[in-house]
Design brief:
- With 128 residues, the chain is mainly α.
- It has one domain (2-127).
- It has helices spanning 2-7, 10-25, 33-59, 64-89, 94-98, 109-127.
- Helix 3 (33-59) packs parallel to helix 6.
- The radius of gyration is 15 Å and the shape is globular.
- The chain starts with a helix and ends with a helix.
Amino acid sequence: MISRYIVAWLPMIVIGISNGILRETTYGKYLDELRAHQISTLTGILFFSLYIGTLVYFWGLESSGQAITIGLIWLLLTVGFEFLFGHFIAGHSWSRLGQDYNLLAGRVWIFVLLVITFAPLLFYQLFS
């Protein structure tokens, strides 16, 4: 069951990239970068929640421990992808990539990571 959820992480890349494209082609043209980032975080949370909720609803989970394990695996995959792709493919510096974790600067990306991590457990509890 866990391997199925690991493979199900792959479409999250598409969801994240699509969310960024939505930002850049619509409201991102009219807002400063920080505001666009914050709105994009909210839409990302919505899209990821819908996706994860759908997975848990149809596939189910065996236990809260399994839900926590899946969330932690998704967290590691997401952060790993963000930093490795961002640095080696997109060419961003490590410090630039780390800036999205600065809550004091209004960067709220970490909330997306919290949703990706804890949504499997929350939906497991909701649907059990």
